[in-house]
Amino acid sequence: MTGAGPSVPGVVDGHAHVFRSAAASPRGIDELAPAEREAPAEELLARMADAGVQAAVLVALDGADDDVADAIERHPGRFAAVAVANPAELGTAGVDPVDTARARRERLPFGALRFRWLGEPGRPVADSPALPVLRWMAAEQLPLWSYLPPEQLRLLEELVGLLPDLPVVLNHLGFCPHDMWVDEHRRPRFDDPFPEPLVQRLVRLADAPSTYVLVSGQYALSSGEPPYADLFPVTRRLAAAYGADRLLWGSDHPWPSDVPGYAALPGLVPSALPDLDERGLARVLGGTARALFPRLAGPAT
């Protein structure tokens, strides 16, 4: 396959987005995903075929599930789903969060739930209204797909101690999103994503054995061009802390799929982590994702 090499079978894209226009399927609208922008599942499948990628994890843009649910229904075995937690699941909407999550999962068989909020900063996570659904996720072994801003990181650090069996996947090398801007290629970008104190905290989170790191988003976090050598040091520190069995690759399609191009993205893993052996590379490029999302076709590596 392009980039990752032909010796890696069963590659899984661990983080991609598909969506239609807001007129065709109601969803949130912002600078990155304006009303008319589309990224249909068929486009992703075509790019996957060109790159030798077999399956993908689809992450909803927001709390609207229709586009991801439709893609999973029309392409069985090719996709797993990550839903975005709504106020109802977070326990802030006056309804039972666990009942709501269960009912939602009947409509969209999500295998993980993405969080941007875990509770009020300055208060213990044990007091969070989201704790009931987090306990349910731990019991069901549904990963928390973590995309938390800086002020939420302390709550996550508490949570992995409170619920050690809850799988947690740190999105995009674990950086905490802040001050996003959109570049000329219609991609999200972030400045100063990895201050040293943050990297140290991410490394310490590796002590929680159910915590994983998504190797993705380099295009948005780097100040250079592919293979994004300025991110090699932090990627290697995380790999040393977590090990290949707790790393997974994702494209973040569609944002980087034109520039630098989807087919170039799997190859960023061996470029950043040249010491991975064949098994380790296969694990990062598919095995970990298959272990976290059993609905994906094919054996785990």
From TrEMBL:
SUPFAM superfamilies: Metallo-dependent hydrolases
Domain of life: Bacteria
Keyword Hydrolase: yes
Annotated keywords: Hydrolase
Molecular function (Gene Ontology), one example: hydrolase activity
InterPro entries, A to Z: Amidohydro-rel (IPR006680), Aro_Compnd_Degr_Hydrolases (IPR052358), Metal_Hydrolase (IPR032466)
Keyword Hydrolase: yes
Domain Amidohydrolase-related positions: 12-294
Full protein name: Predicted metal-dependent hydrolase, TIM-barrel fold
Species of origin: Geodermatophilus obscurus
